[in-house]
Amino acid sequence: MHWITPEIERExxxxxxxxxxxxxxxxxxxxxxxxxxQTLGQYxxxxxxxxxxxGVVADIAGQQDGPVIVLRADMDALPIEExxxxxxxxxxxxxxxxxxxxGHTSILLGVAMALAGAKEPPPLPVRLLFQxxxxxxxxxRAMIREGTLKGVGMIFGAHLDCNHAVGKVVVNEGxxxxxxxxxxxELTGRGGHAARPxxxxxxxxxxxxxxxxxxxxxxxxxxxxxxxxxxIGRFQAGAAANVIAETVVLEGAVYAxxxxxxxxxxxxxRQISMAVAQRYHAKVDVELDEGIPxxxxxxxxxxxxxxxxxxxxGENSVADFVRTxxxxxxxxxxLEHAAGCYVRIGAWNMAEGIAPAHSSQFYFDEGALAVGAxxxxxxxxxxxxxxxxxxx
Length: 392
Ligand SMILES: [Zn+2]
Ligand SMILES: [Zn+2]
Hints:
By secondary structure, the chain is α/β, with parallel strands linked by helices. The chain contains nine helices and 16 strands.
């Protein structure tokens, strides 16, 4: 390791344990932001806090002014009761770092420590974004609205990935995460006595039919080579066994890797909802949120990211995605405004086994912290040189 000394690694692990013990939900990352600020202050890195509420932005001067190389980490945890038995398990009931964002925050602080201790400043200025609320997909847009991409040349983001071993960097060109749009459909029928359904319009029956039609949507409309998913996550209706429900509320999400398929599915959700409602003379109201696009990695920047991984971590450090990722990540919002690339940092340890992200037993190998910080520091340096020589 060139940038990450054993002292920095120890410090990163200690910070990660502290953050893991005190997880905070989206938009409530106050203590986490405080820890970030304290650490940055300790290493003499200048920062601004309170960005979009709880975000933090750190700036490190470069050898020259010019386009800024931006690195981004997310800070939020999930509403999950931890069941890992770790000595540093969550002390916040019902909240857990089950996606590794405690690791991401520690990695970016490791980068700050490495850059603060460097003999020479980086080729171009480096900005570190500590973003709130990735899990609810609103943090990135809020940070952008606050002007955190001002002067950006290139931006990079990374996620820990337990499908890959520690020491690997996973980077692919093209689509590496799906788009996501959340919908809410409210159906209104007519309530009535359960014994006399002829007097009522049973919202549960309409909702059940709509659920089936929406779930069948992807099997008919999508080619296998270009997958998409429609999931219903919430179905709420009814008050009593002998009362026909007047309303039902369905909530779900659409994931796609292709913009045309995404637009088509959103339109079909509206059409099918109206058709099913009409069939039963029910009323329908469909809400579709603004959504987040897919992450699309630019090929030339992927080349840079791969080359940097080989130089920093060894010839065999680069891997490809093992399977098509249908998850979404709001880093894509940054890529709507800036050139960049999103990578994954291997975090799997064969001896420890694997528990999936967003599960109550999620666990990653902490060897990934030093690897991630070494890689991102190297990438900030390499991207600085690249942008200085060729633009972006
Ligand atoms: Zn997550
Ligand atoms: Zn995540």
